[in-house]
Amino acid sequence: MIYDHTARKANDKNKTTYAIGRNDVDHGKQPVDGGYSIWKRKANYRQGAKDQMAWSWVKVAPAYSGKKTGLSFVDAVKIMNKKLKRKEFIEELPK
Fold it and tell me: What is the pTM of this model?
């Protein structure tokens, strides 16, 4: 599940849009439980479509395999700030 209220445009030449998401099983749980990931919006050419562009979300972090199911809240926010190239989000757990 991608949280639309976290979607922000980065300060890069392409104005890439990034957002924080969470595993469906972890949605609704406390932020301490983790399960977060970072997503970016990508344009795909679609032949035969009227405007010929389709948008989809692609996971960019965590880019590892194993038993860990996602990032902690603090790690996700740190990566998001790094991708945006600015301090958009506070890098601590909400109180």
Answer: 0.84
